[in-house]
Amino acid sequence: MSTKLNVLSHPIVNARLSNLRQSGTTPKEFREGIHDISLILGIEASRNLEEESFSGQTPIGPFTGSKIKPQIGILPILRAGLGMTDALLSLFPDAPVYHLGIFREKQTLQPVEYYSKLPSVPPVELVYLLDPLIATGGTACAAMHMITDWGVPASRVKLLCVLGSEVGLQTVQKQFPDLEIWVAGVDPNLTPKGLISPGLGDTGDRLFNTIRD
């Protein structure tokens, strides 16, 4: 296993992920579970962030504090990545949020880009890319191409996902070996329609209660 692939092993994460899998989980519970796992992913993925010191003053006396050094940007992939965004903003409240619109064409399973909210020059030094599911890996790879074309190298990106398939994660790693990936769980299989099995179902539909029969 690549040292760039980090699979969380934590009882709280396991319990939240198990609840997300249940077909009877309500949209409210699903959103809360995605938020909770995203928060833990964000904390774990931030362990090695560069810090810089500053001199401060408490009510009692002076102290030497620390703050995050790199300028951080948050990039959710629409629409399901929106479910992870608030958790990351709670960690980095001043971070800009740049939305990437990518959907997977149902017949070919190929990613289609339809929206990008990236300024012409990156004002950030480190990017958190948010995508709850890595199924075939096509959408994540398309987003990574957009980010690297923008001017941020893969080594300065952290991909956070709630659940990935083995083949999808391998695909992303093969195309972007310098990318740091943080995932809460890994499933072994994909269905012929490119869905993770057993998976979570359609994360966007479950987040926003738009499931159709």
Give me the secondary-structure topology.
Layout: E1 5-7, H1 11-21, H2 27-44, E2 51-57, E3 62-68, E4 72-78, H3 82-91, E5 100-104, E6 111-116, E7 126-130, E8 133-134, H4 138-150, E9 157-165, H5 166-175, E10 180-187, E11 189-190, E12 196-197, H6 203-208
Parallel strand pairs: 1-10, 4-5, 4-7, 7-9, 8-9, 9-10
Antiparallel strand pairs: 2-3, 5-6, 11-12
Describe this structure in words.
This protein is 32% helix and 30% strand. The protein has one domain: Rossmann fold (3-Layer(aba) Sandwich), CATH 3.40.50.2020. With 213 residues, the protein is α/β, with parallel strands linked by helices. Keywords: Allosteric enzyme, Glycosyltransferase, GTP-binding, Nucleotide-binding, Transferase. Residues 7-210 form the Phosphoribosyltransferase domain. This is uracil phosphoribosyltransferase.
Features:
213 residues, alpha/beta, two-stranded antiparallel sheet, 6 helices, globular, glycosyltransferase, PRTase-like
